[in-house]
Structure formats: C-alpha cells, structure tokens
Amino acid sequence: MKLSVSARAVAAGAVATAMLLTGGAVADAASAPPRPAAAPDIPLAGVKAHLSQLQSIATANGGNRAHGRPGYKASLDHIRAKLDAAGYTTAIQQFTASGRTGYNLIADWPGGDANQVVMAGSHLDSVSGGPGINDNGSGSAAVLETALAVSRAQYKPAKHLRFAWWGAEEVGLVGSRHYVSRLATGDRSRISAYLNFDMIGSPNPGYFVYDDDPAIEKTFKEYFAGLGVPTEIETEGDGRSDHAPFKSAGVPVGGLFTGASRAKTAAQAAKWGGTAGRAFDRCYHSSCDTTANIDDTALDRNSDAVAHAVWELSR
Fold it and tell me: Which superkingdom, per the lineage (predicted)?
C-alpha cells in the first residue's frame, strides 16, 4: 500500500522514535554493570592441603586443636596469615570459656554493600581427644579455600562478604554466641545470610542441607540437583552448630553436613553409596579423626557448593 506524504512523515517519525528508544536501551544495557561470573571450581587439592596443615599442627601440639590449647591458636594463626596475604581485613575476637582464652577469626573482603552482608563460617576447634580433621577441619578448609578463590578471582560482589572461623564450638557454641551477642541490632539486621559448614567430608557420607531459610536451602538443593546428587534435610546436628546463635538472632541461616555418629540407613546407602548400618563418621570426636577420615568426593562436592552459595547469594 502506498503512503501519502503526511502518512510517510508520521511513519518516519515513528521509526526515528523507535530507533532512539532502541538505541537508548542498548546504551543502558551497555552501561549496566556485568553480572558476576559463576563461582569457580574449588580445587580439592587446595582444600586437602589445608587439612594436611591442620593435621600437622595437631600432631605438633598434643594431638588436638582444642579450645584453649596451643594447637587451636596455631591453626588460627595459620589461617589468618593466608587471609592477610590474600588481601582480607582480618580481626581476632577474644573471649573466655571454661577458664581458657578463646578466639574467633573474622575476615572481610573489601567492597560490596555494607548493609547487605553474606557470611560463611565454620568452627575451627577440635575436641581435646583428636585432631578434628572432619570435625571441623573439613568445613574450615573449604571456607578458607573459598575465601582464597574470592581473592584469586578479584570478585566484586554486590553484597559485602565476610568469613569467620569460630572458637570453642565444642564446649557449647561459645565463640559464635560471643560474636552474635556483641552485634548491635542494626549490625545483625545487615547480615542477609549466614552459611555454616560443619563436617562436610564424612567418610561414609550423606548429603544433608539445612532447611532453616527457604532461599538458602533452595540454593544448595538446586546445586546438588545439577550434579545429580539427591539431598535430605539435615536433622542430626540441628541447632548443635554455629548457625544456632544467628538463627536465634533472626538472621537467615543455611548450611551443609555429611553426617556424624548416626548410622546410615539402607535407603541412604542405596541413594548415596557407602555402608548401611555404619555411622556416617565412625571417628566422630575420636583420635582417628585424621586426614585418613575424609571422603574426597564428598569434600570436593561440598567445597564447590560452599563457593556456589557464596557467589549466588552475594550477587
């Protein structure tokens, strides 16, 4: 159909307007900050190197890394040195429990919205009867390697990232309770997520996800679903690790766990492999909780899941 002169003028104006609008949209898209890349693969070798160091520290200090003992402080100093070298701002928080001095280590990555803080943490102390390599060197090493991956990637999250290693968990969650109790109300409200990792390399592992916060739970469950690994809701350690003080203070919490002294069922063995009727970790709170007491596949999967959640929840 042939257009009249006036109609052609109107059409030309419409085209020009559309081009301006389209150009503006392209310009806006070009000026928008890029979405951060997905989390990197966390090298299992790096996590296991941290476990070997924690084992060496325990061996040199009476066979343990317990609260108030030299092995704990040496473990904390080792991790702090790694974080300082990687560009973190670190701080030591001191407290007293059971007549002994304890320490928390807090590490902040520069940048991100200080009004939205994503924290990942683990307890660093062992029981006095063993080196505590699964409980909880595994969580501590995975959180450390994730923090170092943030530095290697020079990750610039929208939210502020904070990592923590708690003292005196084994004597009643003392370190994490101390930290939370000293947060001002405003500071508590600024923590948008606290992720807890306690025993993530059990030798007869299950794959358990905390169900405390739906959004955090979904992040972990979708990650494992992508691997084809079924998960279950964590019940054995519910309320018994360092997420509990945060949850009580109203902070959204989540985390991962591979099982402790509870026995794996036949249905769980069919689903995950391993041995039915045997504890997820036969060396729980024992002297045999050494570097030999780790399932590499579980440690690798869970370490990658730690990083995935840190990246996804801090975007």
Answer: Bacteria
